[in-house]
Specification:
3-stranded antiparallel β-sheet; about 60% helix; about 10% strand
Protein backbone atom coordinates (compact mmCIF):
# COMPACT_ATOMS: atom_id res chain seq x y z
CA UNK A 1 0.00 0.00 0.00
CA UNK A 2 2.96 2.28 0.67
CA UNK A 3 3.96 2.05 -2.99
CA UNK A 4 0.40 2.72 -4.14
CA UNK A 5 0.40 5.93 -2.09
CA UNK A 6 3.81 6.89 -3.49
CA UNK A 7 2.83 6.24 -7.11
CA UNK A 8 -0.39 8.23 -6.64
CA UNK A 9 1.63 11.10 -5.15
CA UNK A 10 3.96 11.18 -8.14
CA UNK A 11 1.10 10.87 -10.65
CA UNK A 12 -0.91 13.65 -8.99
CA UNK A 13 2.13 15.93 -9.02
CA UNK A 14 2.40 15.47 -12.77
CA UNK A 15 6.18 15.33 -12.88
CA UNK A 16 9.07 13.52 -11.25
CA UNK A 17 11.84 15.20 -9.30
CA UNK A 18 13.92 13.95 -6.41
CA UNK A 19 12.25 16.45 -4.12
CA UNK A 20 8.78 15.16 -5.07
CA UNK A 21 9.98 11.59 -4.54
CA UNK A 22 11.37 12.22 -1.03
CA UNK A 23 8.37 14.26 0.10
CA UNK A 24 6.10 11.59 -1.38
CA UNK A 25 7.97 8.87 0.54
CA UNK A 26 7.48 10.76 3.79
CA UNK A 27 3.80 11.40 3.17
CA UNK A 28 3.26 7.80 2.01
CA UNK A 29 4.92 6.50 5.18
CA UNK A 30 2.66 8.68 7.33
CA UNK A 31 -0.44 7.55 5.40
CA UNK A 32 0.62 3.89 5.66
CA UNK A 33 1.18 4.29 9.40
CA UNK A 34 -2.25 5.91 9.74
CA UNK A 35 -4.12 3.13 7.96
CA UNK A 36 -2.23 0.49 9.96
CA UNK A 37 -2.83 2.22 13.27
CA UNK A 38 -6.35 3.52 12.93
CA UNK A 39 -8.10 1.68 10.10
CA UNK A 40 -7.15 -1.90 10.97
CA UNK A 41 -4.92 -2.44 7.95
CA UNK A 42 -2.17 -5.01 8.36
CA UNK A 43 1.05 -5.39 6.36
CA UNK A 44 0.02 -9.01 5.73
CA UNK A 45 -2.73 -7.59 3.50
CA UNK A 46 -0.03 -6.28 1.18
CA UNK A 47 1.40 -9.78 0.81
CA UNK A 48 -2.09 -11.16 0.18
CA UNK A 49 -2.64 -8.50 -2.50
CA UNK A 50 0.63 -9.30 -4.22
CA UNK A 51 -0.08 -13.03 -4.09
CA UNK A 52 -3.61 -12.56 -5.50
CA UNK A 53 -2.78 -9.89 -8.08
CA UNK A 54 -2.86 -12.33 -11.00
CA UNK A 55 -6.20 -13.84 -10.00
CA UNK A 56 -7.74 -10.41 -9.36
CA UNK A 57 -6.50 -9.15 -12.74
CA UNK A 58 -7.94 -12.26 -14.38
CA UNK A 59 -11.29 -11.60 -12.68
CA UNK A 60 -11.46 -8.01 -13.92
CA UNK A 61 -10.45 -9.00 -17.46
CA UNK A 62 -13.20 -11.64 -17.49
CA UNK A 63 -15.63 -9.03 -16.12
CA UNK A 64 -14.70 -6.66 -18.93
CA UNK A 65 -15.15 -9.41 -21.53
CA UNK A 66 -18.54 -10.40 -20.07
CA UNK A 67 -19.67 -6.76 -20.09
CA UNK A 68 -18.84 -6.48 -23.79
CA UNK A 69 -20.55 -9.79 -24.62
CA UNK A 70 -23.65 -8.85 -22.64
CA UNK A 71 -23.78 -5.43 -24.27
CA UNK A 72 -23.99 -7.05 -27.70
CA UNK A 73 -26.67 -9.46 -26.43
CA UNK A 74 -28.72 -6.54 -25.10
CA UNK A 75 -28.33 -4.67 -28.39
CA UNK A 76 -29.50 -7.79 -30.23
CA UNK A 77 -32.60 -8.02 -27.99
CA UNK A 78 -33.42 -4.33 -28.29
CA UNK A 79 -33.05 -4.04 -32.06
CA UNK A 80 -34.53 -7.39 -33.03
CA UNK A 81 -37.93 -6.99 -34.65
CA UNK A 82 -38.71 -10.72 -34.46
CA UNK A 83 -37.78 -11.23 -30.83
CA UNK A 84 -39.72 -9.86 -27.89
CA UNK A 85 -37.86 -9.64 -24.59
CA UNK A 86 -39.28 -11.58 -21.66
CA UNK A 87 -38.07 -9.91 -18.44
CA UNK A 88 -37.56 -12.19 -15.47
CA UNK A 89 -36.72 -12.00 -11.80
CA UNK A 90 -34.66 -14.95 -10.60
CA UNK A 91 -33.53 -16.12 -7.18
CA UNK A 92 -30.49 -18.26 -6.65
CA UNK A 93 -27.97 -19.19 -3.99
CA UNK A 94 -24.21 -19.19 -4.30
CA UNK A 95 -21.80 -20.51 -1.71
CA UNK A 96 -19.23 -17.79 -1.14
CA UNK A 97 -17.53 -17.47 2.26
CA UNK A 98 -16.66 -13.79 2.46
CA UNK A 99 -18.86 -10.73 2.30
CA UNK A 100 -16.39 -9.09 -0.07
CA UNK A 101 -16.82 -11.91 -2.60
CA UNK A 102 -20.61 -11.77 -2.26
CA UNK A 103 -20.70 -8.02 -2.85
CA UNK A 104 -18.26 -8.30 -5.75
CA UNK A 105 -20.52 -10.90 -7.36
CA UNK A 106 -23.60 -8.70 -6.89
CA UNK A 107 -21.78 -5.70 -8.37
CA UNK A 108 -20.43 -7.75 -11.27
CA UNK A 109 -23.95 -8.91 -12.12
CA UNK A 110 -25.21 -5.32 -11.98
CA UNK A 111 -22.33 -4.04 -14.13
CA UNK A 112 -23.16 -6.60 -16.80
CA UNK A 113 -25.74 -5.09 -19.18
CA UNK A 114 -29.17 -6.67 -19.05
CA UNK A 115 -29.00 -7.73 -15.40
CA UNK A 116 -29.42 -5.92 -12.10
CA UNK A 117 -28.96 -7.35 -8.63
CA UNK A 118 -32.15 -6.36 -6.83
CA UNK A 119 -31.09 -7.72 -3.45
CA UNK A 120 -28.43 -9.85 -1.85
CA UNK A 121 -28.81 -11.29 1.62
CA UNK A 122 -26.28 -13.86 2.72
CA UNK A 123 -25.96 -16.45 -0.03
CA UNK A 124 -29.26 -15.55 -1.73
CA UNK A 125 -29.41 -13.22 -4.72
CA UNK A 126 -32.43 -11.73 -6.46
CA UNK A 127 -31.61 -10.57 -9.98
CA UNK A 128 -33.77 -8.83 -12.59
CA UNK A 129 -32.93 -9.82 -16.14
CA UNK A 130 -33.95 -7.97 -19.30
CA UNK A 131 -34.64 -11.35 -20.87
CA UNK A 132 -35.07 -14.78 -19.28
CA UNK A 133 -32.18 -16.10 -21.37
CA UNK A 134 -29.83 -13.80 -19.42
CA UNK A 135 -30.76 -15.65 -16.22
CA UNK A 136 -29.39 -18.97 -17.41
CA UNK A 137 -26.32 -20.02 -15.46
CA UNK A 138 -26.15 -17.08 -13.06
CA UNK A 139 -25.65 -19.41 -10.11
CA UNK A 140 -22.61 -21.10 -11.66
CA UNK A 141 -21.24 -18.32 -13.86
CA UNK A 142 -17.58 -17.66 -14.51
CA UNK A 143 -17.75 -14.94 -11.85
CA UNK A 144 -18.75 -17.48 -9.20
CA UNK A 145 -16.03 -19.88 -10.29
CA UNK A 146 -13.30 -17.22 -10.16
CA UNK A 147 -14.48 -15.87 -6.78
CA UNK A 148 -14.55 -19.35 -5.28
CA UNK A 149 -11.03 -19.90 -6.62
CA UNK A 150 -9.91 -16.63 -5.01
CA UNK A 151 -11.42 -17.68 -1.68
CA UNK A 152 -9.76 -21.11 -1.78
CA UNK A 153 -6.31 -19.61 -2.13
CA UNK A 154 -6.61 -17.60 1.12
Amino acid sequence: MFFVFLILWIVFNGKFTWEILFIGMAISAVMYGFICGFLGYRPAMDLWGIKKAGAVLQYFLVLLLEIVKAAFAVIRVIFSSRYEAEPAIVRFRVKLRTNAARVLLANSITLTPGTITVSQEGDEYVVHCLDKSFAEGLDNSIFVTLLQKLEEEE
